[in-house]
Each structure stands twice: as C-alpha cells, then as structure tokens.
Amino acid sequence: DKVGEESVLRAARASQTATDLRVGGAIIMASVQSRRGLTGPSGARSEVTVVETKSGRILLVLSPRTEETTKIVEVDHTSGVLLPQPKDMVQEFKAHNEALEYLSGMSDSIKTSESGSAILGFVVLAGWVLVLIARRTRVSMVLPGGHEVHTVTDSKWFRIPLNGFDRTRVSRDEMKNLNTVTEFAIEGVHFYCETLDVSCPFPGRAGSDFCTEFVWNEWLGQPFWRAGMHQYCPRLFQGFAESMDLKDSNGTPFSYAHFCRRSRQHPGTRYLARGINANAGCGNEIECELLLWRPGSGDGASHKYASYVWRRGSVPIWWGVDIRNTVGEAEIWVKQNDSYEHTARYFRRLRRQYTREGDGTGSFSVTCVNLLRCAPGRSELKLSEGFQKGVRSANKMIQNMDLRVLNFDWHANTKALGEKGTIKGLWMSINNMLREVGFNSGSVTLVEDSDGTKAFEFSRETVQKGVLRYNCADSLDRTNVASFFGVVPVLLQQCRVLDLDLIERQKGEDSEGDLPEGWEARTDQVTGKKFYIDHVNRRTTWSSPAVPLQAMEAMATAGDGRGDWWVLDGEVDGVREAVSTKVLGSLMEQFKVEGDLNAMLYTGSRAMHSAILQQILPPDRHVKSKSGIDSALLSVKRRYLNLVHDGHRQQQMEMFLGISICRYFPTLNSHNPYEYISMRADPESDVEEDAAEPAQKETGGHGASDGASLMPGGSMELKETEDLVKGTETAPELDDLIDFGVTA
C-alpha cells in the first residue's frame, strides 16, 4: 500500500541524512581476490542492461564487478529460458559500453532498454518475462577487505511479453496479480553485497554457500543460480545495513557496521505472521549484528575485528489475538495441547546456524530475554506462561543446548524504577549471560601468494558461545529499546578488545594527581592553553591523558580487576559521562531508524516508546517525547492500517517470495520454464533430529495450514486472509510486577 511504502522510504532517507551515516572508503584499499569473495578492478562498479531488439529478442548485458569481461545472455523469447550462449553474435566484451555499441550497430538493433547496477530477480509469469533491476543504489557500508554493501534506492521491473503466448488463457485476476507483485516495495529496505557473503555473521561463508533464511530473492534468483551464474544476480536481503567511520579519544580511526537481516521463514504482516509456523519460523524474526574493526598500518598488516550477534522476534510458540474493536485490549490466545515440536525445531536451527563451522554438537546457549507483562490479570501473562512451557519442553527435546528464559517485565520495571533504574536492572539481569556468551573476534590480513595473487585471509581468535534473543509480543517497540541497551556494554567491550579508547577526557578539570605516572601539565604562555608533557617518551600533546575519576573508579571496581564489561556493573549516568557521546549517539540514531524501519515493514507504522533511548545522551540533547495520548493514537492507527492493508501487503510478499505462486498464477501449471518451487529440506535444521519429526497439520496457528511444507523457497500454503484477521494489542500500559528471575 502507498502509505506503507512512502513511510518506509522516509525511514530510509532518514538513515542517510538525520543520522549522518557516512561510509568510509579508505579503511582498507582492496581491489583483490578475497578468500571469502571476489572484488573487481579498482573503482569498478557493476552494470547491467536489459535489451529488447526490434525483432523481439531479449538480451541481458551483464558486467559484474567480480568479472573482468562483459557477457551477453539471451532470454528465449518464446519460453523465457536463459540462454548463456546466444547464437549469431559475440558473447563477451572488454567493457559494458563496447557491448552496447555492438548491439546498436547490429541490423536487429536495440528497440528498448533499461540499465542499472544489478539484476535482483528473473521470472516468467502470465506470459511475461519480468526482470527486477536495481537502477540506483548507495554504498551504505564498506566492510573489512573493501567489500561494499549496496542499499537499493531505485528499482524497476522490466517487462517483456513472450512471443506466441496465448494471452486469452490469462484471467483478469492473474493480470492484477502481475501488477501486484511488481509493486512490492524494494527501495530503502533491501541491500546486497556482490563480493562477500553477508547472509550470516562476518566474515560469512566461502564460495557460493549462504544461509537461506535471510535471502529474499532465492526464488527470483534460481534461474541464474541453477545455471551457475551466481555473480550475475546477487543475493538480496531485507532490513537495515549501515556503517560509520569514527575516531577514538586518541584519534585512532575505526569503523562499525550495523546489520539487521529479516527472516523469510515466517514472512508476513503483523496480523498474518505471528508466533511460530509449521516451518519453525517466527514472525518478525530478525538477526542483528554489530561489527567493529580498526585498520592496520602498512602492507600485509592485520586488521582486527569484533562481531556480536543477537536475535529478536515474536514469541516462538503457536499463538494469536482476537480483535473485538479498534480500541481496547486484544485478547491473546495460545494453542491448546501444543507439543512445542516446532519451538524445539526453531531453537535447533539457531544452534545449527551459529555452530556451523564446528561439528554442530557442542554446547550452545540461548537466553530469551522476555519483555512481556507478567502481572496477574494481564493478557500477556497467558502468552508469557505459554512461552516458558515451550522452552521447558524444547529443553527436553534438544541435547547439548542451554536454553533459558529471563523474565524482565519492561513496562512494570519502567513504572516502578524509572527509565534509568530499568536500564540498570536490565544490565544486572543480563550480566552473566553477556560475559558467558562473548563475541566473535579475529583479524583479516592481506597476503600475497607465490604466483603474485593477492588475497584476504580471515583468522578467528574468539567465538561467540551463544545468543541472546529479545522479544515482546511482536518484536517491536520494547524489543528495539531493550536490545539497544543490551548492545551498549558489548560495544564498549569490543572496543577494549580492539585497543580502542572511548573514554572522553574532561577538559580543563584534571589535576596532576589524575595524570598517569611520568606526565606533567603546563600552560602555554602564548595561547594560554594547557598542554601535557610525557617525560617517559619525551613528547608533548594538547590532549589530556587523564582518565575521568568516575571511569577510573568503575574500572578499578570491576569484577575481574581489568575493567572488562565494566558497564554491566554501572549506571547509565556513569556511561553517558565517561564514554564518547558521538559514538553512543550515532549508534542510538541507527537504532531509532532501524526500529522505525522494522515497525513499518511489519505494521505499516513507525516504532513507539523510543524516547528512552535518549538516556544514553546528555540531557541538553534530549528531544521532548510525545505524550501518552500520541502513543495511544499511534496504536489505534497501527491497528487500523493492519486491518485495512495487511491482506494486500501479505499477498505482495507471498508473490515476491514465490509462496503458493501457482495459486496466484495458474498458468504456471501449464507454462513453467523453470522448477521455481523447491521442496528441498531446510539446510539449517538439525537434519538427524528433524527427520524423525512427522509432518503435522497445524490448524490452530496462523500463516500456515493443511500441513504444508514450509521450506525456504518452497511452496507455502496460507489460509485465506479473511480467516486470519486476528488482532493485536493496544498501547502498552504499565503494571506493578518486577521480575528479574530466570526460568529454565
């Protein structure tokens, strides 16, 4: 719907302007071959052009940055099949313009064409060849090794009719669906990387392997990928990808990247994709990653990095809500007599994904930070109790996995403790979990082989031993806020591992007693400015080496005596006063944009209750938050938009992903040039354990029915939308229960 698309675009534009999310291109100069992906010639950019000749031939002119030549691929104009070796013409050229000039000089010259940066999908529907082109992109991220992540800012479906196709067989509804699938919003909320696998945490997987859960064009990319032409159609991801270049207190440059990859295993809008489905996928499921790195100096230097991954998503059991009216609290229902087998499959998938490089059988922990209301009489209490039953049942079904639920009633704690007290309470609650889980760290090094070929080698020093998963009912407002404050301690610990100093020096307030041994402070007689003498290294500097007293005390009293994870033992005021405001502020702005973007994609409206994020900033930078009445009105608007537009948006999403595609396009049954629908097993599941699970028919859930197989990229039969319009909650209210407990 137009309202949702325009709001998503506004959120995307905000990520470019209001938050000053710049990309630094000079971190690691790389136009070389990588162990985890290839890069093209220096300064090269991919180009694609779709051409229709005067005689009706369909040609794809492809110049990916991973290749040194331009290739022409033909599309059979009667069947829609890709022909990698077109007849009666030259197939390869040194440059893209050279290929276009060649086609223009042919007797069968160009009739129409469309150019762009990449082809993101190819499909034949209702007698039409549809090619999805990213016409314009912006480099939203440059990862270690020079790998560019592109966010799509303008896209177009290039449509060419097949010759000889009997269009009288195509119904009016099928043509309407053809227009609907091409209206699916791409701009601002999808990204791709041509040279590195970004489907999983950095540095990704080698070769053409990838995690299917987050690849939104797996169906649309099959014609290219099955022909071995992965380089011509990059994998497309829905979500958020931004990076920023900064300097620490000592002037050392570093960068960080923030990923949010939205899962497609339970795709859909808020009313139609809640909880878990028969594919063991969760509604509004998102994998998040915070990657920090600092460049080395000189050729062959190692560039250190640290990567932390967390999850957020809907409650992973079968549940829904009943809507009685537009306002008022919705009634939550939880499936009765649930065996929780799909909940167990969901957590087994997490273990397989994050222990994939090992044997997959080692111990792995998942801590579910449950932010639901837990007070008696609250509708969410039923959901919270069902969630804990599901986790207990899953624990019995899964071996070598530490699965826990940490109850943290966000609204109750905010009412009882205030915003600052709630943040401190969260840090106290997740203290042990974060210390146990840790994060991935290592280095990337530019090496040169004996034949002169340059490549990047990745080495890992530490491995993240588990994952924290944050949830409220729908993984929206509370989840975004709690996950931000859950990441702040990790960010500062990552900086310690990378030898980055984010402690801000207090200007003009330090005494000689605060200075490190061997330092002296003096005043310049000409300028009147204070400068500092390092008698040990015989140098001077304008920057004070003094550590703020509060930060020194915090580090001195940290549990291990070295200052590791010191934020977890402190309060938000201490962090705000001691740590660089620029770093914390930029991360906070990214979380605000991310929260709005994910809320728009799931509900059609922006996120609520984001004002608490400002607690990480000085008071003079706080923006006055909107009143509770405004939040209530936004909640009503959100529910109205869900009721009116969710059905149409759901259909768009299903068609784009290839879900139940023959239901929308019946002519595929008789005219199908490719086996678009894949029923293969889920490669991320625990194969041995999942094989023993019988296929079950789930009639009490939502988003799936009739026991259909819901494999990624497979056929997914969904209930009719009018049977699925169940409701959601109203604007959150506060209750009185505080629970920092952990249950297994």
Structure description:
The model is unreliable at 1-42, 555-562, 677-681 and 686-744 (pLDDT under 50). The strands form five sheets. Strands 9, 10, 11, 12, 13, 14, 15, 16, 19, 20, 21, 22, 23 and 27 form a 14-stranded mixed β-sheet that branches. Strands 3, 4, 5, 6, 7 and 8 form a six-stranded antiparallel β-sheet that branches. The two termini are 42 Å apart. The protein has 744 residues and is α+β, with helices and mostly antiparallel strands. Helix 8 runs antiparallel to helix 11.
Short description:
By secondary structure, the chain is of the alpha+beta class. Helix content is 27%, strand content 24%.
Please render the helix and strand layout as text.
Layout: H1 2-16, E1 33-34, E2 37-38, E3 47-53, E4 58-63, E5 70-75, E6 82-83, E7 92-93, H2 96-104, E8 110-116, E9 118-125, E10 128-143, E11 147-161, H3 172-181, E12 190-192, H4 218-225, E13 236-247, E14 253-262, E15 286-294, E16 302-312, E17 319-322, E18 331-334, H5 341-354, E19 364-370, H6 379-397, E20 401-407, H7 410-437, E21 440-448, E22 454-462, E23 466-471, H8 477-497, E24 519-523, E25 530-534, E26 539-541, H9 549-556, H10 572-578, H11 581-603, H12 628-657, H13 661-664, H14 687-691, E27 742-743
Parallel strand pairs: 16-23, 19-20, 19-23
Antiparallel strand pairs: 1-2, 3-4, 3-8, 4-5, 5-6, 5-7, 9-10, 10-11, 11-12, 12-13, 13-14, 14-15, 15-16, 16-21, 17-18, 20-27, 21-22, 24-25, 25-26
